[in-house]
Amino acid sequence: MLPLISKHRLYVYLLFFIFLSSIFNFKLLESYKDKFSLKNINVSGLPDYEKKIIEIELNNLKNINIFKLDEDHVLDKLKNFKFLEQIYVNKIIPSSISINLSKTTILGKTLIDGEIFYVGKNGKFINSNQIFQKKEFPLIFGKFKVNDFLNLYEILKSYQIDLDKVKKYYYYKNKRWDLSFSDGLKLMLPSNNIEESLNIFKKLLDTNNLENIKIIDLRINNQIILTNNE
Predict the structure, then answer these.
(1) Residue 15 pLDDT more than 60?
(2) Are the C-beta atoms of 85 and 132 separated by less than 8 Å?
(3) How far apart are alpha carbons 126 and 110 in whole angstroms?
(4) Closest to 213 (Cα-Cα) out of 201, 202, 226
(5) Is the Cα dihedral 190, 196, 201, 202 positive or negative?
(6) Is the pLDDT of residue 4 over 70?
(7) Average pLDDT over residues 221-226
(8) Looking at residue 21, what is its pLDDT?
(9) CATH among 3.10.20.30, 3.40.50.720, 2.40.160.60, 3.10.20.310 for 40-103
(10) What's the CA angle centered on 131, arms 130 and 134, to 5 degrees?
(11) DSSP state string for the chain
């Protein structure tokens, strides 16, 4: 016959068992949390300096549970870096993420409230303190929306205008553009039917009779005004 265990002793055993189980579960939980906490953030696709400032910004994502970390967390951290165009985030279980980034193409620069901003192909105005490799870009004058300029840029490309020779763009309130080229030629475009005007401009260039011409004015429909001085 098995010996009887007093209720008091049984309670002690149960409490001791619960205590040991709690310690075990706590350690197991802590081990689980630590195993799946973000420890490594690998950034690629950028030059070293840009890569370093991105890594510093992302550093406080570390120790977040990787299953709770989604792409929006990363995008939120990177939203102020206007020079970025594409962002790819890949989780690597158990404790790493890989982030591949690409920079936008700079198409020009402009002044906004007296401060220099660069115009990115990604459709954003980029503060000059985020452009680390300075080089010459065409100047864009006037109060324009980025999409206004991007639309013009794509049309010019489609007509194979040599954009490397465009040194200045001028935007006017009536939504039309003038272009100044490196050879001193100025092209004045209308508000509408830009494509038709560029077709005329290309034909004029092909005639090779513009040697002394400084201004090509195509603002008025069905009229071509050529001026040999400004």
Answers:
(1) no
(2) no
(3) 10
(4) 226
(5) positive
(6) no
(7) 89
(8) 54
(9) 3.10.20.310
(10) 155
(11) -PPP--HHHHHHHHHHHHHHHHHHHHHHHHHHHHHTB--EEEEESS-HHHHHHHHHHHGGGTTSBTTT--HHHHHHHHTT-TTEEEEEEEEETTTEEEEEEEEPPEEEEEEETTEEEEEETTS-EEEGGG--S-----EEESS--HHHHHHHHHHHHHTT--GGGEEEEEE-TTS-EEEEETTS-EEE--SS-HHHHHHHHHHHHHHT--TT--EEE--STT--EEES--
Ordered by start, the domain boundaries in the chain are 40-103, 106-227
Q: What CATH topology corresponds to 106-227?
A: Rossmann fold (3.40.50)
pTM: 0.80
pLDDT tens per residue across span 58-74: 998 988 888 888 888 89
Give the pLDDT of residue 56.
92
- pLDDT tens-digit map of 120-151: 999 999 999 998 877 899 999 999 999 999 99
Band of pLDDT at residue 35, cut at 50, 70 and 90: confident
Backbone region of residue 198 per phi and psi (left: phi > 0; alpha: psi in -120 to 50; beta: other values): alpha
Per-residue pLDDT tens digits for 186-209 = 999 999 989 999 999 998 888 877
